[in-house]
Structure prediction request, 74 residues.
Amino acid sequence: MKVSVNAVNFSVDRKLVVFIQERLTKLEKYYDKVVSADVFLKVEKTSEKENKVVEVKIHVPGDDFMVKKQYRTF
Prediction:
């Protein structure tokens, strides 16, 4: 499975990219038809502590799945 990690408006640490890739490759254990995954990391400019947003788009034959989570850490 191909995993693409994109950071919006900041530079992402290599450790975080490796962590994301390791976690997403585990999806193949449950569903082997996953083609690719696109991960978007964003830091919103707000005064709230929960200003980090992760969006994951999973591509499978015939459909796409999108998950979005906002929290204080990636």
Remarks:
- The chain has a mean pLDDT of 91.
- The radius of gyration is 13 Å.
- The CA atoms of residues 32 and 52 lie 30 Å apart.
- The chain has one helix and four strands.
